Amino acid sequence: MPQSQPRFVILDRDGVVNLDSDHFIKTPDEWVPIAGSLEAIAALNQAGYRVVIASNQSGIGRGLFEMSALNAMHEKLYKGLANLGGRVEAVFFCPHTAADNCDCRKPKSGLFEQIGERFGLELRGVPVVGDSLRDLEAGVAVGCIPHLVLTGKGVKTRDKGTLPAGTRIHDDLAAFARWLIAGDGAHKALSSPAPSAP
Ligand SMILES: [Mg+2]
Ligand SMILES: [Zn+2]
């Protein structure tokens, strides 16, 4: 990846940033961040990463909640992050159901392609963080590097044992962020010359 390209991380939402539910997250009250996840996003921002979310939200297509509810959830996300000095660039979501056969519902890669277009971003090598196989598959299809977290459906996903080659596993988003930031630090320490004495 060229040095000039801004660094991005693409996250799934439910089960990665906020607690998941088998009954869908339908209201801002049901949208509850996973402990340490907003701090992790803020830490990534501080380390120079721009964070984007790519999320299947078939609850809209199923008529379980309205766009206004989704917007209110994301207001809660943005405010929580702002309190910590963090931000996400955008939340890209697929509102469709499987029956719609759209191009954006993960494991299809449409959301990722939208992100690439919006930010003029070369997706190859960008870390994708998810708790479900389809998150990782959607990213891998466009060259992203897969990272599984064990929050949400992550343990179930790990135990199925069908992860894309090269998937790295982290306890949660905070552990992923620490790993990514520490790795960068190590890389910089190795590649920059030692400071010389005056
Ligand atoms: Mg998820
Ligand atoms: Zn879709």
TrEMBL record:
It is found in: Cytoplasm. It holds the Pfam family Hydrolase_like. Its EC number is 3.1.3.-. Keywords: Carbohydrate metabolism, Cytoplasm, Hydrolase, Metal-binding. GO terms for molecular function: D-glycero-beta-D-manno-heptose 1,7-bisphosphate 7-phosphatase activity. It comes from the Bacteria. It is an enzyme of class 3 (hydrolase). Coiled coil: none annotated. InterPro entries: HAD-like_sf, HAD-SF_hydro_IIIA, HAD_sf, Heptose_bisP_phosphatase, Histidinol-phos. Gene3D superfamilies: HAD superfamily/HAD-like (3.40.50.1000). Belongs to the gmhB family. This is D,D-heptose 1,7-bisphosphate phosphatase. The gene is gmhB.
